[in-house]
2-C-methyl-D-erythritol 2,4-cyclodiphosphate synthase
Amino acid sequence: MTAGAPDSRMVIPRTGIGIDVHAFDTEALAESSPQEPGGLFLAGLHWPGERGLAGHSDGDPVAHAAADALFSAAGLGDLGTHFGTDRPEYAGASGTTLLREAARIVRSAGFEIGNIAVQFVARRPKFGPRRAEAEAALTEAAGAPVSISATTSDGLGFTGRSEGIAALATALVYPLQ
Ligand SMILES: Nc1ccn([C@@H]2O[C@H](COP(=O)(O)O)[C@@H](O)[C@H]2O)c(=O)n1
Ligand SMILES: C[C@@]1(CO)OP(=O)(O)OP(=O)(O)OC[C@H]1O
């Protein structure tokens, strides 16, 4: 092997990053009907009684940031490349549906997924009690470990004013040889 040149037998993992933000939807309060439940969809879970987020899909910034990080790691563009708002089939789509589809696309391009880590910024909902449930939902959708953490912004900025929720994700993928 030449000094400085990568060994062609080495599997070089690739990292990716994704950020997503959704604003609270003032009309999406509480439950509306069993067919179209109101409330919040976040981290692959439904949070009845919490104010919902606006979006073409269900507006889940945790799942969207995770999917964006996968596309970023694989060099396959971003969420808009694959699930644009011009695609009626994704109207109202759940975060787990989008993450499952993103993982399928990344695997079809010849990658396996190492893991995804996501952190969201919000005062509410209190995440700790449902962390295991959310991690299980997104891990099942991605077919790879997804870890999720939450933080507040100490009352500062748009998350501090409860105008929306922001999420940041990283992902690791590696090419299958
Ligand atoms: N929506 C949230 C936000 C935070 N947590 C948990 O609280 C811890 C402290 O948050 P600070 O922003 O005050 O540092 C944080 O590490 C989380 O464990 C939460 O559960 N849900
Ligand atoms: C997911 C898509 C498509 O339904 O819509 P939104 O739910 O608005 O989500 P966003 O993260 O703003 O962008 C990606 C969109 O293409």
Helices lie at 61-74, 79-82, 95-108, 131-142, 157-160. Residues 61-74 form the longest helix (14 residues). The beta strands are 14-23, 40-42, 45-47, 111-121, 146-151, 164-175. The CA atoms of residues 111 and 175 lie 4 Å apart.
